[in-house]
Write a structure and sequence with these properties.
Elements: E1 2-4, H1 6-9, E2 15-22, H2 26-29, E3 36-48, E4 54-67, E5 74-86, H3 87-93, E6 104-106, H4 108-117, H5 126-129, E7 134-135, E8 138-139, H6 151-164
Antiparallel strand pairs: 1-6, 2-3, 3-4, 4-5, 7-8
Length: about 170
C-alpha cells in the first residue's frame, strides 16, 4: 500500500487521506493460521509534523477466516485495529528499511504486522460448542487435571492409613 505524499511533502496539503481496500492472496497468508483475509479496509490520514516526520493515524477493519480449534471448520473472525505513530519509527520497529521516502510511503508492513497481532490463539465455531466431545473409546482431553487414582495404589494407601490408625 504505497501512499503518495508529494503534495504533503511540498506543503500543498496538510494531510493525505487513506481509503484503501485490500484482499490478501494465499501466498501472502502462508505461514499464518489465516485461511482467508478479504476486503480489509484501511481508513485514515498521514500528516507531516514540524520536523518532517510523517504521522500515520488509521483504522484497519475486516474479517479473517480461521480454523476452528475443535472441528477445523472455517470460522469468520471480525477484527478492528487502530494504528497511530511516526511511520519511520513504526517501520524501524518492524526492522523494515525506510527506503528514503521520496514521494511515497509503503504502509503495508505496518498494516500487516498489526493484523498478525490481532489473530486470536484459538477460535471455536458456534457449531462446535454443542458438539459431543466423547465417543466409543475416545474422549477430548482438556488441560484440566483429572483426579484418577490407580486402584492398586488406593489399596496401598488404605493399608498405610490403617497401620497409622487414620480413618
Amino acid at each position: 500500500m504505497k501512499i503518495d505524499i508529494t503534495r504533503l511533502k511540498s506543503g500543498v496539503d496538510q494531510e493525505v487521506q487513506i481509503h484503501e481496500k485490500k484482499t490478501f492472496s494465499k501466498e501472502e497468508l502462508n505461514g499464518t493460521s489465516i485461511i482467508e483475509l478479504n476486503d480489509v479496509n484501511v481508513e485514515g490520514i498521514i500528516t507531516k509534523n514540524n520536523i518532517d516526520d510523517y504521522i500515520l493515524d488509521c483504522i484497519v477493519t475486516g474479517n479473517m477466516v480461521l480454523p476452528c480449534a475443535i472441528t477445523l471448520k472455517p470460522v469468520t473472525y471480525p477484527f478492528s485495529v487502530s494504528i497511530e505513530g511516526n511511520t519511520r519509527e513504526l517501520l524501524e520497529e518492524l526492522n523494515e528499511n525506510d527506503k528514503k521516502m521520496e514521494n511515497t510511503i509503503d504502509i503495508f508492513p505496518i498494516i500487516w504486522e498489526n493484523i498478525l497481532v490481532e489473530i486470536p490463539s484459538r477460535v471455536v465455531s458456534e457449531d462446535a460448542e454443542n458438539l459431543s466431545l466423547e465417543g466409543n473409546g475416545w474422549k477430548l482431553c482438556t488441560e484440566e487435571p483429572i483426579e484418577k487414582i490407580n486402584p492398586e495404589l488406593q489399596k496401598l494407601s488404605d493399608l498405610l492409613n490403617e497401620k497409622r490408625g487414620v480413618d
